[in-house]
Design goal:
This is Cell division protein FtsQ. Residues 37-108 form the POTRA domain. Part of a complex composed of FtsB, FtsL and FtsQ. It comes from Paraphotobacterium marinum. The chain has 236 residues and is of the alpha/beta class. It folds into 3 domains: 1-35; 41-107, Ubiquitin-like (UB roll); 112-235, Rossmann fold (3-Layer(aba) Sandwich). Helix content is 38%, strand content 26%. The chain contains 5 helices and 12 strands. It has a 9-stranded mixed sheet, with helices on one face. A 3-stranded mixed sheet has the order 1-3-2, with helices on one face. Strand 4 (112-114) and strand 5 (118-120) form a beta hairpin. It is elongated. The protein starts with a helix and ends with a strand. 17% of the residues are buried.
């Protein structure tokens, strides 16, 4: 009797194990079959001016060739898109079962010209070379190699100060020399010599004394603020 119970228990165990194995095999084949499902729909959203949605779609389709839904690596696709198109700042990609790929794209915002060769985005990063005169109205930033972020940040600070204290004047150009000496050209063609020390303090001093300089009723060529006390003004 005891042996019979043992045999029944063993038979039940083996039957259960066999069923489990069959289920696992079924699931594996089901997943493999599902993975054969290809991406059939690619949706691209975002405001695009410099990159064609059609070009992005064609590029993605080439990368998805012979790849099943579950095998699509969205992180790799994101990296490839951002690397291929310099005008794309960020791509966000998601998959939706059973066959949809959603791509949301953010384009670069051209903000400044760096050393007359490159375009900086609104984060101070180089992302493209300057083409034709399309971006001639962007602020010009010049400085030593690999110092674009430093010059960009200084420009942002000075521009913020100027916009707060003066609604008429704007910065057209900022130059940082190899010895860290700073110059600023305003939209009224006044050149400011700010030197290498107390940059912000000297710039604020210019804004403070500018109304008094204007009372001279002479066209201003430059204002030299590199003195501890006072300034030197050059006339046209």
């Amino acid at each position: 009797m005891f042996k019979l119970i043992q045999r029944k228990g063993l038979l039940f165990y083996l039957s259960s194990l066999l069923i489990l194995i069959i289920l696992v095999i079924y699931l594996i084949f089901s997943v493999l079959k599902w993975n054969e499902k290809k991406i059939n729909t690619i949706t691209i959203t975002g405001q695009l001016t410099h990159v064609s949605k059609k070009n992005i779609e064609l590029s993605v389709k080439k990368q998805l060739k012979n790849i099943g839904f579950f095998s699509v690596n969205v992180n790799k696709l994101k990296e490839n898109i951002e690397a291929k198109y310099s005008w794309i700042y960020q791509a966000q990609i998601t998959k939706k079962w059973p066959d949809i790929l959603n791509i949301n794209v953010k384009e670069q915002e051209p903000y400044a010209i760096w050393n007359r060769k490159y375009i900086l985005n609104d984060y101070g990063e180089i992302f493209s070379s300057v083409g034709k005169d399309k971006y001639i109205n962007l602020v010009k930033l010049d400085g030593p190699e690999k110092k674009e972020l430093l010059v960009f940040k200084k420009y942002k600070i000075l521009s913020s100060i100027l916009s707060h204290d003066s609604k008429q004047m704007k910065i057209l150009k900022v130059n940082c020399s190899e010895i860290n000496s700073w110059e600023v050209i305003l939209n009224n063609k006044i050149l400011l010599y700010l030197g290498s020390d107390d940059l912000i303090k000297r710039f604020r001093r210019f804004i403070k004394i500018y109304p008094y300089i204007l009372k001279q009723n002479k066209p201003i060529k430059y204002v030299d603020l590199r003195y501890k006390r006072g300034v030197a003004v050059g006339w046209r």
